[in-house]
Amino acid sequence: MRKWFFGIALLCVIGVPFLFEYETATNPSSDPAPIVVEPVVEVPEVTPKLYGIDVKAKVIIEDVVKPNENLSSILSNYEVPLQEIDLLAKRAEGVFDVRKINVHKSYKLICNADSVAQFMIYEPNKIEYVVFDLNDSNEVYLGQKEVVTIEKSLTGTIESSLYNAMIEAGASPQLVDNVADVFGWQLDFGRLQIGDKYKIIYEEKEVEGESAGLGPILGAEFIHESNPFYAVRFDQGNGPDYFDEKGHSLRKAFLKYPVKFTRISSRYSGRRFHPVLKRYKSHKGTDYAAPTGTPIRAAGDGIITEARYKGGNGNYVKIRHNSTYSTQYLHMSRIANGMKQGAKVSQGETIGYVGSTGLANGPHLCYRFWKNGVQVDALKIELPPSEPITENHRVVYDSVMISMLEQLQNVSYPNESFQILAGD
Ligand SMILES: [Zn+2]
Known about the structure:
Helix content is 18%, strand content 34%. The protein has 6 helices and 25 strands. Strand 9 and strand 10 (210-224) form a beta hairpin. The structure holds zinc ion.
């Protein structure tokens, strides 16, 4: 008996999976319709939600903040007791500053069927919202709507300026600024040529189908005087930056010190005692004390916009590096040969020699730094990194770059059926 039983059991163990396999193998496509057993489960009714709040059978009132209205006056209109409003304002501390409830912004009140207000929702911007819970808990909390990131492309040809071309193509002024930032070192946007053209692939955030702000530029092509310039966004560990098709950074660093072997004798300051004028005056430069005749180096590539002798500045040179940055070098004993207005200079090139011409009580270089037309502290300004793609990121970068250039190539220039191919 035991042997029999064992034999049947063994047959079952071997046979059942075999049979199963046979079954599936012979009926690959002509399966009979599966028998569906309807589960006897009640399908829950979908409860409508707004800001994560169940609004079934609720009354929703929408309004805008009127001049001179605040949290207190708004809620008083809905018969929320002052004590409760005070408590809500206190609970809001650290979550949302209720003094920032702005005129013309919209808010909603969620009321029960008896028109008793239960929640107030204020939207400080297109993405965030603040919930004031008017029920017993009196909580105040921040929420965020779902943000969808959409990849977009934009292209155009320059007729007058980049700004006009991009605005005409539907860009926001912010996007124009972003493009100028990406290519700031490669292109002088004040000197573009008619017929120069661009393609950009960028991200835009959308909330409920409406634009809620720009994301970064992912890649771009700019054709200037028939030469292509590329930008590919990539992060190799120190934050995203832009690189060209060879993996070079689009940013160029400034020399930290425009004179070698020196010491800083006076820093940029809003107020310092002027050693010659003997009175307090702002000092919008960095002074480097150095012996007369020490070479002064251009802090970066650029074009000389001024090279002359003028009053307190003495002999000086000013260099425009790009549409964002300019630098100026004062009190030179002598301006170097060939350094004239309009001359091109390379980073590190000698542009003049330390001296004490103009208002100076000893030989030094007064180095001044402009960003967007405003003088800033050269030692404090945060300049983006300029390292190329490193060896360990090369493979990943190349695949990102190649697919971005392909993506760019799939965007057509306006009124153009053929593509301009990248070439050296
Ligand atoms: Zn100075």
